[in-house]
Amino acid sequence: MADLVTVQLYGSLTQFTGGAASIDLEAATIRDLFRELLAQHPALGEDLDSRVSVSVDGRIYTESLFQPIAPENEIILLPRIAGG
Amino acid sequence: MALDEFDSESRIFSAVGTRPVRPDGIDKVTGKAMFGADISAPGMLHGAILRSPHAHAVIKSIDTSAAEALSEVKAIVTRADFSDKVSRGNADVLENVMAGAKVLYDGHAVAAVAATSAHAAKKALKLIKVEYDVLPHVTDVDASMQDGAPIIRDDEIKVEGYSANVMSRSEFGHGDLDAGFAAADVVMEKSFKTAATHQGYIEPHACLGSLGADGRGELWCCTQGHFVARNICADLLGIDSTQLRVVASEIGGGFGGKTTVFIEPVALALSRKTNRPVKIVMPRDDVFRATGPTASSSIDVKIGMKNDGTITAGQAILRMQGGAFPGSPVDMAAMCAFAPYALENVQAVGYDVICNRPKQAAYRAPGSPMACFAVESVVDMLCNQLKLDPFEVRLKNGAKEGTKASYGPKWPRIGLLETVEAAKAHPMVKSALGPNQGRGVSCGFWFNHGGETSVTLSLSQDGTVALQVGTPDIGGSRASMCLMAAEELGIPYEKIRTTVVDTASLGYNDVSHGSRVTYASGLATIKAARDAKKKLCQRAAKIWCIDEEAVDWQDGQAIPAGQNAGGHDPLPFAKLCKSMGRTGGPISGHFEATPEGAGVSFATHVVDAEVDPETGATKILRYLVVQDAGKAIHPSYVEGQFQGGAAQGIGWALNEEYIYGEDGRLQNAGFLDYRIPVASDLPMIDTEIVEVPNPGHPYGVRGVGETSICPPLAAIANAVSNAAGVRLTELPMSPPRILKALDDA
């Protein structure tokens, strides 16, 4: 069983989580995080992982489903970072 | 992949940091380089696209019979000639490439012709009869949000309190705004507007497509990402992506505007119908009317400050329209707005709005320059009112490692304060200002990006290297890749040739965007070179009959290492290459991954400007860019990126704007009426490179291509406002607008 991590959501995502901006869930990787988030809040949508980036201790991950995460990490879902 | 890639701050570089001649330079200055429009093929047809004259209308019918009757016309396509099973992510791309039931902006494509000559294709367009039912339109972001605005896509309300044209609302921030503003000695509020501006690339979009009825094809085009162009085109045409081979031409500027497709699927659809290659070159007015400018914006900012310069709270409400499709960069803008500041109480709210304008495309640090303009203008107003030094206020409140970003995360190692200190110490800041002259300061921020990346590095028997990358060279990256490969292998820069290869020759690569190429393709090049070095050491071990662990690579040669390795003469790179066929076969190094360690970048700009109170004209007297590059691989091209961002920012701030008439039609679709800066508008733009290493890259590289356009709008607005003695809040600060501001003051 994975440890409990806390994920913070940016503003526009909270409309799909009943207003919750901070959610505790069991996850050992970013993939687990997406799975658990969708299980708890299906309104976030199946394509959530393609719409967001995940900041782990200030480092922004866009494609790394297997990146480990742990309770001591600061985890924040952000809009997907792109550029010009 | 692992994040802490950085080798060491004490590493001494031999190739990296030097300034050799760029390998593509001679071809470009002699006209030998092949750009999009230079590609032709036997039997080629010429394509042309019919575009809507209306900002918003239902297409009742399209009659192509008269055009088809012309002997020179070989095919006509409409929306019916594209796939009806396009993925959800590309649905808006298809809608933009070729209108379906409605046209959504002046210039929206409705049909296309392939004919035996460009003249015949143009003639045929005039014979296509389109019957429209014209609808009300809206082109202003604030007007589009209001109840009663013409509804552009569907009438479902997505954000309570606004029209159905508001597609989403996002919010970032933390702390207690009310408490923060209550603690301030001064609270300043101001509203700002910025016009939509085009990336202004000199090369129009151009392509040559060839697609058979069997779904196999070739596409040559100017693009920032030929793998992405391949995938989108395949989706829009209903073919397998790998059956389409895409070759990227040289590119005459992109700046984000060539990260998607406009004409490429059309050329391929026409080709599939005629079984002949079809070439399309966009006329300049089509480039303005139908390719993506950046968003226009309307922004309110409120900042509280103590008398000593401490910022107690900051709030920004940002509204951006991204044309007739959702996806304006307002999220990014909201995240960047207060990024240079460490604030306890901060909020940024963004509204994504649609209008009857062309679909916006990325433009260098999308959204950040506008947000920066509004926030840094208010910071400047507070500095003026409280008589505070603008550098000291930024140093006092500046973001640094460990402080919480306004968009959430704690900052890793960043170089903002170093750029402020360097700017403050620069000789330009000591220049005296004369009458009607003013100085402006601004900081700016951009994220940067990694992305999917593949590189192959192949050794040749003569001791040279063919480096294959899949990221189009939009800013001198071939030179940078050669330098990084030379550094790793310990061979001369001239012994390496970097080629941007086609989509059939290498694994997938994301677009050249997000300031990612020197970071991600650079990291991949270093890793591929290390892979090749490992194989070279294995060969040396075989030759010497020792363990491979007993071989080191040093200064371009394999050397025995350790007491038990024996006393062998070093084996140079060229010697190992020469014998590789007989010692185990050809040697190549590879790297395929998605690097995620892109380092964010900050900059500080300082501008001295003079305003003529009689004409309203602005002259930029001096301009300084200081930016954190992490590690400058080829300093000349880093400086070039700094200068390029500043030059585009000068145009954006002073003159460039999309002007729409009451009829919803674009009135200035050409460089005569859409005024980008020319050489005589620009001073020598001074640059200073700060190097605070990014721990996510072996050499510490941070992307530099976008951050340089974040501060200019604000820095110039602050300089102009200080010169004119009146605050300018709307861009561009064209002479009529400055005169009006002076009159109103």
Describe the structure.
The complex is a heterodimer of chains A (84) and B (745). By secondary structure, chain A is of the alpha+beta class. Helices cover 18% and strands 29% of the residues of chain A. Chain A has two helices and five strands; from the N terminus they run ββααβββ. A five-stranded mixed beta sheet of chain A has the order 2-1-5-3-4. Chain B has 745 residues and is α+β, with helices and mostly antiparallel strands. In chain B, the strands form six sheets. A seven-stranded mixed beta sheet of chain B has the order 3-5-1-12-9-10-11. In chain B, strands 7-15-14-13-8 form a five-stranded mixed beta sheet. The longest helix of chain B has 28 residues, at 517-544. The model of chain B has no long low-confidence stretch (mean pLDDT 97). Chain A binds chain B through residues 8, 10-12, 47, 50, 55, 57-64, 67, 74, 76, 78-79, 81-84, and chain B through 1, 3, 88-89, 168-172, 199, 255-257, 259, 331-332, 335, 349, 361-366, 405, 407-412, 446-452, 513-516, 594, 596-598, 696, 706.
Assembly category: heterodimer
Beta fraction of chain A: 25-35%
Question: Ends of chain A: how far apart?
Answer: 41 Å
Give me the secondary-structure category of chain A: alpha+beta
Give helix % range of chain A.
10-25%
H-E order of chain A:
EEHHEEE
Intertermini distance of chain B: 57 Å
- DSSP strand count of chain A: 5
Q: Helix content range of the residues of chain B, please?
A: 25-40%
The counted number of beta strands of chain B is: 26
Radius of gyration of chain B: 27 Å
- Let me know the largest β-sheet of chain B: 7 strands, mixed
Count of DSSP H/I helices of chain A = 2
Strand arrangement in the largest pleated sheet of chain B: 3-5-1-12-9-10-11
> Quick one: biggest sheet of chain A?
5 strands, mixed
DSSP strand content of chain B: 15-25%
The gross shape of chain A turns out to be globular
Query: Which chains have the largest interface?
Result: A-B, 24 and 48 residues
- Let me know the average pLDDT of chain A: 91
Shape of chain B: globular
